[in-house]
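The passage that follows is intended for readers who have already worked through the single-chain material. We present the inputs for a multi-component assembly, then the predicted structure in tokenized form, and finally a short commentary. You are encouraged to pause after the input and sketch how you expect the pieces to fit together before reading on.
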Amino acid sequence: MKSAVVVFPGINRERDMARALKLMSEREPAMVWHAETELPAGTDLVVIPGGFSYGDYLRCGAIAARAPIMDAVRAFAQKGGLVLAVCNGFQIVCEAGLLPGVLMRNAQLRFICRDVYLRVERSDTPFTRGYNAGQVVRVPVAHGEGNYIADGETIARLEGEGRVVFRYSSPDGIVDPNWNHNGAMNAIAGIVNERGNVLGMMPHPENHVEALMGCTDGRGLFAGLVDHFKLAA
Amino acid sequence: MKARVTVTLKSGILDPQGKAIEGALKSLGVRGVASVRQGKVFDLEIEGADRAGAEAALRNAAEKLLANTVIENYRIELTG
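Having made your guess, compare it with the prediction:
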């Protein structure tokens, strides 16, 4: 799996992501600066990592979404290329129009940095094939604006088309307002686009991939992606 | 030419910051405020004196960057 991590000024999770990608795919990802206009030839997976691009000025992800590299990312996604967007990355791809909706200020107005539980809603996407549908994984979050909202029609479409792939839940997989730390509509933690090749998620699977991190529940996502490309090859 | 673009949340969009400010006003004893919605104001200086051109540029700026029209409305004013 040949991956490319897009680097914007102000992000801070690109090295965590690169480390996880290298660990799981045994291949060093390319780091692509935001001012570039092309992705490296033969890229299988583009990753938009987390952090605070442009200091979250204007709106989270708004300025990064208009960076030169994003035209190349858009073209890559239009051709069916896989895009994984985590945390600030999720905010960036929503602002860029690659995914619907917006990440608003957390309902409690606090920045939340801790582990949460996610229920994997489906296992038949390239991003979740390493998990079973209904499985609960523990993954950290670190965000102040992770409260997913969209208009009623969009939410109905996302749900109707099975495009919600991760939902905040209890450790037993029960979706309950008490376990929805940021107040996201329908406890949405991650969604895919219509074609299923762009995933945006607030939690950080790249931070739970090694025993030293205290949990390896994030490995399934990367292992699934690696498998996906092995089978395709 | 000076211009102002005001960006506000669409009605129906939950505004937790506005709600917190509303609560703070209540706890300060400020009476008569029924509700608060928070928004943003951008003051811009426009090159040249073409008003129609300026309005088009401001609309472009608002649509492309200043507002996220999924959740926000914007209003353009040329202030002289």
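Commentary: Chain B touches chain A at residues 13-14, 16-17, 20, 64-66, 68, 70-71 (CB under 8 Å). Chain B has one domain: 2-78. How closely did your sketch match?
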